[in-house]
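Anyone up for a design puzzle?
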């Protein structure tokens, strides 16, 4: 790849061009200060940022959407206020009273940071963070807007963080049973070697060449977790990874590499392979029979990946010109998948954004064609269309396709200019967004059709940005409320129907209990009354996070529990189930092969064992081929066999008379055919998110938010 710099007549570069970035430019004031950034898109030069100065200090910053931010200074030249202003009056008031204000001590250190804004409930908010410094030992203490403090200090090679603390007017007090100290020890080169937890357990890292100041942090040779389990890594002399192990420190993966000298090509198949060790990964030898092999062309670009039992991924010649298809920056344009499908991707010329993505099956039929459209000025996505949605195997294009249209706020004199405003789908379903003063989602409105009544979900936040309430769109007065402990961990949730849930954690943030109650105790906020059910999790002192006992307690106070036993790789070896009288009811034991595949499951009830065996594909070492069923015998004609396609995906499941699965080019299930039940079909949007499900009788459609939250009628799952 070639990178070109254009300096013009100046001493610093004005323009940089490369295949991967396109052309990026920058400009300067007469005094040499940066005044702007530009980008060339489809031949047009777009301003992506600009800066205005006053007496040499940054005064106005403008982004690609035209949003302006103003910086105000005090008499000593320190930033005093920062906030958004209108395009028409940049020297006027901050938009909607939204700004951040700073105060300083006598030597210029920040003492307070005050954020002013209007929240989603139209309430004026001021959230203050304070900073305290100790000149004697360099300790810094930060108190957040919830009035909980965190103290940071360094003594020699040991860095300590103590939190949360309660300010007392002149100092800071520990909070009983909550305050904790975490430490990091570094070696003389500054690399972290020990992470020490509040309970004294620690994880350890050792490095290759740990006594140097180079990039040794990228080359750990041993990582030991709090339970004493090791992962071990070795390297070639030039620093490339050679081997790695699992948590047992024994099962090893081997990495080998290949050079791709210019002009050298294998004449037999067009791929370079089996050359002397060099810079590109060639083979990953996995534990057991499996391995992954990588092939490159003479430019060093990856063109093929092979794995036994999983077929091959290969860049192909989609346009028939005799050459493999890549963009100038090396992105593959035509790819053959292990499943036999071909995916062709077309890009916009300069923006490097996907324009079309076309999928062709083994019969040379286009089964999917996605189109992406962007705003030429802001580069925001404005439209996606699946031109073949609903008509697989044909080239017939529906009039509108499966379309989604994106709209954005467009007013440089108001907040949120350039942020996503709405998405409207071809079905008439839609989703729209409103934001609070600091840009958080304040309201989501969903509609099931063009004339449907909007269902509004409103979000409130606490002083540090945690969601505190979610207002139920199906009940104007109903909401779900959340509280958080002093460390910001979820503490309680109250549903609109009054159901109250409490979470408890230990000093290492491991969950120790979830308890559900009929109501919160009005006389003792934060506690529940009328237990429904609770689950308690016991962790040995050195356990990383997996519970070794789970105890279930129901409303009448009786409890049952499960004891769990693990191997060094955190695989469950045995489960023991006990009843209300602490009597053992049943056990389940598991065995594994060297690759970590489960090979047997033995359940014992009242002293009588029942075993199920699992057979793994001998070629790839990972695919489950058959199970014995409850008779515990493989090969007796009663086995349950699983089918796989050339890409290694499960296509047949021996359940309820047999299930057959089909996939799209992205590897997502598009249909399930069931012998003794109704079939299911699934559709996905341009980003691979499921948008509909059909069970043969009913179709359920989903609205999908950009962050992939799934929105159902009248509800939001977050």
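Challenge accepted. My sequence:
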């Amino acid at each position: 790849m070639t990178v070109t710099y254009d300096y013009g007549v100046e001493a610093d570069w004005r323009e940089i061009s490369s295949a991967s970035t396109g052309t990026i430019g920058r400009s300067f004031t007469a005094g040499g200060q940066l005044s702007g950034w530009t980008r060339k898109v489809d031949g047009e030069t777009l301003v992506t940022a600009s800066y205005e100065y006053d007496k040499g200090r940054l005064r106005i910053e403008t982004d690609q959407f035209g949003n302006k931010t103003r910086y105000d200074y005090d008499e000593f030249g320190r930033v005093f206020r920062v906030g958004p202003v209108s395009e028409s009056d940049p020297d006027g008031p901050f938009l909607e009273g939204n700004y951040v204000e700073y105060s300083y001590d006598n030597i210029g250190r920040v003492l307070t940071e005050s954020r002013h804004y209007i929240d989603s409930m139209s309430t004026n908010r001021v959230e203050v963070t304070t900073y305290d410094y100790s000149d004697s030992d360099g300790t810094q203490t930060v108190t957040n807007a919830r009035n909980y403090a965190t103290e940071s200090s360094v003594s020699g090679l040991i860095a300590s963080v103590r939190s949360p603390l309660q300010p007392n007017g002149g100092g800071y007090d520990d909070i009983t049973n909550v305050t904790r100290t975490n430490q990091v020890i570094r070696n003389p080169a500054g690399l972290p070697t020990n992470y020490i937890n509040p309970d004294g357990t620690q994880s350890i890292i050792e490095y290759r060449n740990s006594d140097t100041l180079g990039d040794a942090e990228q080359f750990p040779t041993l990582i030991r977790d709090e339970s004493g389990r090791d992962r071990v890594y070795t390297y070639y002399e030039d620093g490339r990874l050679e081997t790695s192990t699992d948590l047992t420190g024994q099962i090893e993966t081997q990495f080998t590499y290949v050079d791709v000298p210019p002009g050298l090509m294998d004449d037999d198949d067009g791929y370079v392979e089996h050359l002397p060790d060099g810079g590109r990964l060639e083979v990953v030898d996995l534990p057991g029979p499996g391995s992954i092999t990588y092939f490159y062309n003479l430019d060093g670009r990856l063109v093929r990946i092979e794995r036994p039992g999983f077929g091959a991924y290969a860049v192909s010649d989609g346009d028939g010109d005799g050459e493999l298809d890549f963009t100038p920056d090396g992105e593959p344009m035509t790819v053959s998948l292990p499943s036999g499908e071909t995916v062709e991707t077309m890009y916009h010329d300069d923006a490097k954004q996907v324009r079309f993505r076309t999928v062709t099956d083994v019969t040379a039929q286009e089964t999917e064609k996605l189109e992406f459209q962007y705003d030429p000025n802001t580069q925001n996505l404005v439209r996606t269309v699946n031109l073949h949605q609903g008509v697989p195997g044909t080239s017939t294009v529906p009039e509108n396709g499966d379309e989604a249209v994106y709209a954005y706020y467009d007013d440089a004199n108001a907040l949120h200019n350039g942020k996503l405003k709405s998405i409207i789908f071809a079905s008439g379903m839609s989703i729209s967004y409103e934001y609070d003063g600091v840009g958080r989602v304040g309201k989501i409105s969903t509609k099931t059709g063009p004339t449907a009544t909007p269902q509004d979900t409103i979000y409130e936040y606490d002083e540090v940005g945690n969601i505190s309430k979610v207002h139920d769109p199906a009940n104007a007065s109903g909401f779900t409320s959340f509280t958080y402990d002093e460390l910001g961990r979820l503490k309680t949730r109250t549903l609109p129907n009054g159901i109250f849930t409490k979470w408890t954690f230990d000093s290492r943030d491991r969950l120790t209990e979830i308890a559900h109650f009929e109501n919160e105790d009005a006389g003792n906020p934060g506690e529940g009354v009328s237990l429904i059910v609770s689950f308690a999790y016991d962790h040995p002192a050195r356990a990383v996070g997996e519970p070794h006992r789970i105890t279930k307690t129901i409303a009448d106070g009786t409890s049952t529990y499960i004891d769990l036993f693990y191997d060094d790789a955190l695989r469950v070896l045995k489960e023991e189930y006990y009843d209300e009288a602490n009597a053992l009811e049943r056990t389940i034991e598991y065995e594994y092969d060297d690759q970590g595949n489960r090979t047997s499951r033995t359940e014992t009830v009242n002293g009588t064992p029942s075993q199920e065996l699992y057979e793994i594909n001998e070629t790839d070492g990972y695919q489950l081929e058959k199970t014995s069923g409850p008779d515990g015998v493989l090969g007796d004609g009663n086995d349950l066999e699983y089918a796989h396609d050339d890409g290694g995906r499960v296509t047949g499941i021996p359940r309820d008379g047999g299930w057959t699965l089909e996939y799209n080019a992205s590897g997502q299930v598009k249909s399930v055919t069931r012998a003794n039940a109704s079939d299911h079909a699934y559709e996905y949007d341009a980003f691979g998110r499921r948008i509909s499900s059909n069970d043969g009788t009913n179709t359920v459609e989903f609205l999908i938010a950009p962050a992939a939250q799934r929105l159902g009628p009248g509800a939001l799952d977050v």
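A detail worth pointing out: The radius of gyration is 30 Å.
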